[in-house]
């Protein structure tokens, strides 16, 4: 998590990213192969908020019109502890989803 600007200024520090890494949602869905499923940030946030809970939800079908998405429950798995990955994931969802920002926010 980046330091706050006040803390940086107080201590005469600067910060800039030196490492980049991807955070990728992983799915296990019969008939859907690597890189086939399309998700946008708002839809991903809605899945993690429990607002989208079936693979054949209209929002997922709209993003994936060529896939045959099954009427199966989405089982969300997530990391509960605080970490750099948790911060980056929740920071992203906070930027793309007002519902996420109001509810969960950055962890």
Could you explain how this protein is built, in words?
The structure is a single chain. It is built from five helices and no strands. By secondary structure, it is mostly helical. The mean pLDDT is 91.
Approximate shape: elongated
Span between termini: 10 Å
Mean pLDDT: 91
% residues in beta strands: under 5%
Helix content: 25-40%
Q: How many strands appear in the DSSP assignment?
A: 0
Write a concise synopsis of the structure shown:
With 107 residues, the protein is mainly α.
Task: Detail the topology: elements first, then pairings.
Blueprint: H1 5-11, H2 41-48, H3 58-63, H4 84-96, H5 98-103
Q: Any key phrases for this structure?
A:
107 residues, 0% strand
